[in-house]
Amino acid sequence: MSIEELARKNVRELTPYQSARRLGGKGDVWLNANEFPTAVPFELTQQTLNRYPECQPKAVIENYAQYADVKPEQVLVSRGADEGIELLIRAFCEPGKDAVLFCPPTYGMYSVSAETLGVEYRTVPALADWQLDLQGIADKLDGVKIIYVCSPNNPTGQIINSQDFRVLLEMTRGKAIVVADEAYIEFCPQATLAGWLSEYPNLVILRTLSKAFALAGLRCGFTLANEDVIALLLKVIAPYPLSTPVADIAAQALSPQGIVAMRERVAQILVERRYLVTALQDIPCVEQVFDSETNYILVRLTASSAVFKSLWDQGIILRDQNKQPSLSGCLRITIGTRAESQRVIDALRAEPV
Ligand code: PMP
């Protein structure tokens, strides 16, 4: 047998996640991964690298609980929200039997994690306004253990109606976990469902330091849930999921001063988003700019593939969403600095229609 043939069938058939970094490019304007555009400096305070770290570093958990207004027992910290997505499948889904469900167009890791673990995934396309098709979901719930709902949604940028979340949580009570992926919630904090944890034992919320906290390179994310869910996730998590330097920096980022700085970054991004949206609306090759509650915007363009390539060749790297259901002609643009937005605007103005 070849090495390839020795591998699990689902792994041989797997298409890995096309992360912005894997896609490459030789840009100098990186607007394809919804990162914060500038780096925040930190200094390490822990020098005890001869010792293993705590599995769930107390300072990180306590600071996050305080920030999210939940109990420390309701918080799990992991290697990015991506690890949270996978831990949930490992804890709740029997390969070959159970399924996960999500509503495209949405974030790509739900399917990749399910496939990697040999768990079926089912999709119910979002409605024309990208809200949930609740009837469609109800019709496909048989065997579903986890439903991932990204809110605000990546890549479309809108918040999922809270009333629809309520219907979904009631529909699945005692049967399935509803995961609200709140990776971008700092850009619209009023929309969080964290306050609902006491009402719904099947609600799980994913968070990250990769976006508004400007720490994508740190790899640190959080799962908020009731204690019995957290206890199950702690059974399947790695013994030392965060390195000591990661925990050190995360605790600093979540200090009261860290939270204030994060809110200032959010305010800056919202100003820059308004600037970019306004400018894009007057550009001939731009057909539609969709409303966004996040640090990125989705734009429909004439000849989007040619535009994507042309900007790529000029060192401006955007994210092509053309292949996602209902997103033909759409590119996603991360909100960067004013100078980066200006590069995008000038390049798009120069595109033929
Ligand atoms: N969920 C969504 C919707 C995301 O966009 C991302 C980041 N690409 C993640 C989760 C994963 O975040 P992290 O960097 O914390 O793994």
What does this structure look like?
This protein has about 350 residues and is of the alpha/beta class. About 35% of the residues lie in helices and about 15% in strands. It is built from 13 helices and 13 strands. It has helices at about 5, 10, 20-25, 60-70, 80-90, 110-115, 135-140, 160-170, 225-235, 245-255, 255-280, 305-315, 340-350; strands spanning about 30, 75-80, 100, 120-125, 145-150, 175-180, 205-210, 220-225, 285-290, 295-300, 315, 320, 330-335. It has a seven-stranded mixed β-sheet, with helices on both faces. Strands 9-10-13-12 form a four-stranded antiparallel β-sheet. The protein starts with a helix and ends with a helix. The mean pLDDT is about 95. 4'-deoxy-4'-aminopyridoxal-5'-phosphate (PMP) binds near residues 107, 183 and 208. 4'-deoxy-4'-aminopyridoxal-5'-phosphate binds near residues 81, 181, 183 and 221.
Specify the number of helices: 13
Approximate helicity band: 25-40%
Q: Beta-sheet strand percentage?
A: 15-25%
Distance between the termini: 53 Å
Order of helices and strands: HHHEHEHEHEHEHEEEHHHEEHEEEH
Sketch the major β-sheet: 7 strands, mixed
Bound molecules: 4'-deoxy-4'-aminopyridoxal-5'-phosphate
Rg, nearest Å: 20 Å
Instruction: Label the overall shape.
Output: globular
Beta strand count: 13
Give, in spatial order, the strands making up the sheet with the most strands: 2-8-7-6-5-3-4
Give the overall pLDDT as a whole number.
97
Structural class: alpha/beta
